[in-house]
Write a structure and sequence with these properties.
This is Glycoside hydrolase. Keywords: Hydrolase, Signal. InterPro entries: Beta-glucanase-like (IPR000757), ConA-like_dom_sf (IPR013320), Glycosyl_Hydrlase_16 (IPR050546). By secondary structure, this protein is mainly beta. Strands 2, 5, 6, 10, 16, 17, 18, 19 and 21 form a 9-stranded antiparallel sheet that branches. It has an 8-stranded antiparallel sheet with strand order 3-8-20-11-12-13-15-14. The longest helix is centred in the middle third of the chain and has 12 residues. The chain is globular. About 50% of the residues are buried.
Length: about 375
């Protein structure tokens, strides 16, 4: 049995307290930790959204229901976000499989986003993932004009990463120069739901392969002139500053004795990261700066929607044999989604120092030393 600690709905922002320093050389490639979400504060800093803007076969639940039905909580120091894998769902407009979608209360305008993921929604193998549409992404309040960048997104039997950049009307010449060899840019006009998509070929960075390796570290650099993404597996040699930062965050506990948060100490230098898996570049007809603003971090597990479109479901040799439609399959086979959950160790955001640092909106002076309280209640669950 796995114990889930309290889920709280207190408001407030989060900074880092009492973390040891990861030493790197100073310079223009240097980022300093400003925001950290982990087992000490995650559900205090994220809101539950019950509306599905993507027209999936899903029923997002609120925080109270998520905790009561064991769809959200903490386990072994990790953040758990799951779906109902026990009950059949009703069909039609009122139907959908219960799941969760959470949005950060804080908005961002750039920075280095480092996500330590232990497990993502999938089947035991990628061929067992039909109907799933999980995503970890950033998006603005007014979509798509405030922009969207997908850090992790996929559907059905997908086995390698897809990153997509979505904008309003003002991005028509996207370039992916500087992306890893083999990565394919599909479309240079990033408008709306189609966006500019990059398909990567790297193995072990998505789905069942990611989970069997114990997860990994996803990094997004959101700069004024580009969006770059890297992945570092558990069994690969990470950049020293990333490894040190992850180790420090994993081993640290908040300082409850202090009422004033100390300055963040962790730093990451991106100069040694190597070639990113994907890179989206500003151009004469597409400014990253003008097309990405005031973004929230969003994590969700949807069903069908994109994954259930006729051209996706009907042409997938594996999924199309499981049911006449994606909705029908998802509704009648809850057991297929026992492994459709997120386990996240931490989400950390780093900013460059100086007046030109993009920064974030919202409170940024509250330390995570104030532990969550007034919670909904603990629970136990078999994974």
């Amino acid at each position: 049995m796995i114990f889930f600690k309290t889920v709280s709905r207190l408001a407030g922002a989060v900074l880092v307290a009492g973390l040891p320093r990861a030493v790197v050389a100073a310079g223009s490639n240097n980022y300093t930790l400003t925001t950290l979400y982990d087992q000490w504060n995650f559900f205090k800093e994220f809101d539950f959204q019950t509306f599905d803007p993507a027209n999936g076969f899903v029923k997002y639940v609120d925080a109270v229901t998520a905790n009561k039905d064991k769809l959200a909580g903490y386990t072994d120091g990790l953040i758990y976000l799951g779906v109902d894998h026990t009950n059949k769902s009703t069909m039609g407009a009122m139907g959908g499989r219960p799941s969760v979608r959470v949005n950060s209360t804080k908005q961002f305008n750039g920075g280095l986003f480092v996500v330590d993921i232990v497990h993502m929604p999938s089947g035991k193998t990628d061929n067992d993932s039909c109907g799933l549409w999980p995503a970890f992404w950033l998006s603005g309040s007014t979509w798509p004009v405030d922009g969207e960048i997908d850090i992790i997104e996929g559907r059905n039997t997908q086995s390698t990463p897809i990153n997509t950049f979505h904008t309003g009307d003002n991005c028509t010449d996207m370039s992916n120069e500087g992306s890893r060899e083999g990565t394919i840019l599909r479309g240079t006009v990033c408008k709306g739901g189609t966006g500019c998509r990059q398909d990567a070929t790297i193995k072990g960075a998505y789905g069942a392969d990611l989970n069997s390796a114990g997860g990994g570290i996803f990094v997004l650099e959101w700069a004024e002139d580009h969006l770059s993404q890297w992945f570092f597996g558990r069994d690969t040699k990470m950049p020293a500053s990333v490894s040190a930062a992850i180790a420090s965050i994993s081993s640290a506990t908040p300082d409850y004795s202090s009422s004033v948060p100390p300055k963040p100490a962790l730093q990451i230098d991106v100069s040694g990261f190597g070639t990113p898996i994907t890179r989206f570049n500003s151009g004469p007809k597409c400014s990253i700066k003008d097309n990405m603003r005031n973004n929230n971090i969003i994590i969700n597990t949807d069903f069908c929607g994109w994954a259930g479109k006729a051209e996706e479901w009907g042409t997938n040799e594996i999924c199309s044999k499981l049911g006449s439609s994606c909705d029908e399959y998802v509704a009648n086979h809850p057991e297929a989604f026992k492994d459709a959950y997120w386990l996240i160790r931490s989400i950390s955001v780093y900013q460059k120092s100086g007046d030109d640092a993009p920064g974030a909106t919202g409170n940024s002076t509250t330390s995570r030393h104030k532990r969550e309280q007034n919670g909904i209640g603990g629970f136990r669950k078999e994974l």
